[in-house]
């Protein structure tokens, strides 16, 4: 009888040991699995850094603004440039400065803004002509200043108010001249000027002696 009891107790002890070993093995596997997951998964702060980095990259993407360039540039008109561009960048994008451009009153280093207009005027032709022809004769310069040449208007740089002064040119025609100039570039001769709607041969004859190119 005692032998039977001892055998039963040994069997029970064996089952307890197996159960303990099984639990220990399961715990070891669980610990190893958690450790592997922690090593292979990115930390939370890294995820936050990546998200913020993506947002920062989106914010740093250049945005376009619209700027109007007129006057003594190769291709006057409306241009799209990157936000933060300088005036010199816009001028270069418009074909660069033409010979005779006057930039003494233009800050080419300024940062342009959306909807801004940059006008590049031309140098006064009369003053340079007087200096060349009459360098040291005040009376000759005074006579030349009173000549009709000073009243001539540059058809390629004049604004609407100046064009309105020409004979036969009212506000509407002045606007069409500027619109044609912006769309097609500077006028090269009278034949091209006469392509402007409303400016025919008769009107051109009236104003041709009062304009320069």
β-strand number: 5
Specify the CATH class of the largest domain.
Mainly Alpha
Query: How many helical stretches?
Result: 9
> Based on the structure given, which CATH architecture of the largest domain is correct?
Orthogonal Bundle
Shape: rod-shaped
- State the helicity in percent bands: 40-55%
Could you please describe the fold and organization of this structure?
- It contains nine helices and five strands; from the N terminus they run ααββαβααβααααβ.
- The chain has about 210 residues and is mainly alpha-helical.
- The chain has three domains: about 1-60; about 65-120, Roll (Ubiquitin-like (UB roll)), CATH 3.10.20; about 125-210, DNA polymerase, domain 1, CATH 1.10.150.280.
- The strands form two sheets. Strands 2-1-3 form a three-stranded mixed β-sheet, with helices on one face. The protein has a two-stranded parallel sheet with strand order 4-5.
- A hairpin with a 5-residue loop joins strand 1 (about 65-70) and strand 2 (about 75-80).
- The longest helix has about 40 residues, at about 1-40.
- It is rod-shaped and about 135 Å long.
- The protein starts with a helix and ends with a strand.
């Amino acid at each position: 009888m005692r032998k039977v009891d001892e055998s039963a107790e040994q069997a029970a002890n064996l089952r307890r040991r197996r159960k303990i070993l099984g639990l220990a093995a399961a715990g070891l596997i669980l610990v190893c699995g958690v450790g592997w997951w922690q090593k292979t998964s990115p930390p939370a702060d890294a995820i936050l850094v990546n998200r913020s980095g993506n947002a920062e990259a989106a914010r740093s993407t250049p945005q376009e603004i619209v700027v109007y360039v007129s006057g003594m540039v190769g291709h006057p008109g409306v241009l799209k440039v990157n936000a933060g561009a300088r005036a010199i960048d816009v001028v270069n994008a418009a074909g660069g400065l033409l010979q005779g451009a006057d930039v003494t009153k233009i800050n080419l280093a300024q940062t342009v803004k959306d909807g801004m207009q940059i006008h590049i005027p031309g140098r006064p032709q009369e003053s340079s002509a007087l200096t060349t022809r009459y360098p040291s004769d005040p009376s000759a310069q005074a006579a030349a200043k009173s000549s009709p040449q000073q009243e001539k208007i540059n058809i390629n740089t004049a604004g609407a108010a100046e064009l309105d002064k020409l004979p036969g040119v009212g506000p509407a025609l002045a606007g069409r001249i500027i619109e044609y100039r912006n769309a097609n570039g500077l006028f090269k001769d009278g034949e091209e000027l006469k392509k402007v709607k409303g400016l025919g041969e008769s009107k051109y004859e009236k104003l041709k002696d009062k304009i320069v190119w």
